[in-house]
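Module 6 notes. Inverse folding takes a fixed backbone as the condition and produces residue identities as the prediction. Think of it as a translation problem where the source language is geometry and the target language is the twenty amino acids. Below is one complete input and output pair. Work through it position by position during the lab.
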């Protein structure tokens, strides 16, 4: 699995689990939901950080620092990496293919 694919999955899980935790907090505040979703959210947050760091485009685009933002950092980092890879002339074609898992 490519780092960008893993980042995309973990960023989605991070954002969805945060939404579930906040929804639970604002409605029923069920302990079982917090017990199950809380560690999932924490693990997804750590996976986002771990999968962002080795991506070459993350270093020059500042995405590594965005990944540290809790809750939505994965989505922000993924957006920054994708926009950086699409810029013509910034990244050579082989690096783009490698980062996209081709």
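Target side of the pair, the amino acids:
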């Amino acid at each position: 699995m490519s780092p960008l694919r893993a980042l995309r999955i973990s960023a989605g899980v991070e954002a969805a689990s945060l939404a579930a935790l906040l929804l639970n907090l604002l409605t029923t505040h069920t302990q079982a939901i917090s017990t199950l979703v809380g560690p999932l959210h924490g693990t997804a947050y750590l996976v986002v950080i771990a999968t962002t760091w080795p991506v070459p485009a993350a270093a020059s685009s500042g995405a590594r620092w965005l990944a540290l933002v809790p809750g939505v950092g994965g989505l922000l980092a993924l957006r920054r990496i994708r926009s950086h890879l699409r810029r013509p002339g910034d990244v050579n074609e082989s690096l783009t293919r490698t980062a996209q898992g081709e």
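Reference fact for the lab report: The first helix runs from residue 3 to 26.
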